[in-house]
Fold this sequence. Notes:
By secondary structure, the chain is mostly helical. The chain folds into three domains: 6-83, 3-Layer(aba) Sandwich (Rossmann fold), CATH 3.40.50.720; 95-147, no CATH class; 223-317, no CATH class. The chain is 48% helix and 10% strand. Strands 3-4-5 form a three-stranded antiparallel sheet, with no helix packed on it. Strand 3 and strand 4 form a beta hairpin. Helix 10 (267-277) crosses helix 11 (281-295).
Amino acid sequence: MRIGKALYDNLYLSCIIVGEKSARAEQFAQLLLGGAIKKDTPLLLSDITFLLSKSAKRTYAKLTDSTEAEAIKLFSNTYLAMRVAYFNELDSIKNTILGYTNNSSKRVNFIKTSFENGTIYLHLQPKIFTNYNILKDERYKYLEGILSYIPSENLYFDSYSKYQTSYNGDVEKSSELGWFLKQESFKWAWYMALLVALLFIVFNAKRRQRVVQIIKPLKNTTVAFVKTISNLYFETQDHKNLIEKKTTYFLEKIRMDYNLDTSVLDADFIERLASKSGVAQLKVEGVIKYLVWLKTKRQYYESNLIHLNKLIEDFYSK
Length: 318
């Protein structure tokens, strides 16, 4: 029941929770329903969980054991505390009102009160100081207004849970580990864990030989690449391009291997190439003269490409 509205809440019930499952509990619930103005409210004598709602049009009665009834009460009070965060009663003479909730002057949530030689600012909704609240819409402006009451002087943050140091008082003698060390079983378990960790470090500190990984050598894919490119040109019937490339690569190899000038492909060149390469002069003459003849043509056929390839292979085979 709400403060100041106990009679109204008894006449207009939203729910009834009886912490006992018995005939007298049912009789007591019926008695409460009988005194209510809302006569059309049903009585549920089952264990079906119901939803607490201010806008409910029916009153639900639930028979539970004492433990469940206490849990429901705690849940309801917690939910109410989360939704209602303002001062029910306030001495306006000793306290200065600085803020309201939901823009209602009856719901004060921010006050200033004097304490000895200083001032205490008390706000009942700490969630407004969270990052989540500040980032939504323009709520940061409300926070700026609250912080504007703080004097522009040195600020000292005082946390509820802290350890004192020698700079501001007695040194804190206890710690989170202190309680465990007071327990005999926990203490020996802690020391045993430290001993095992120390032994592990000592016996595993020496250098270990890593497993030698087998690295597979890279495959030579040059031939496969050349075949792929050749098939591409061959399938597109670009015989001219293939003949020009084969001629260029063949002459480049002659320049690199035998240090010969390939700008003039005459009888003297054929004789010098046959002498340096050790290939029969007849074979050299056949391939060189065919290259010279191909340069005079404008249109190439598949037979020209095949014949050129055969002559070049015969040259390399010696």
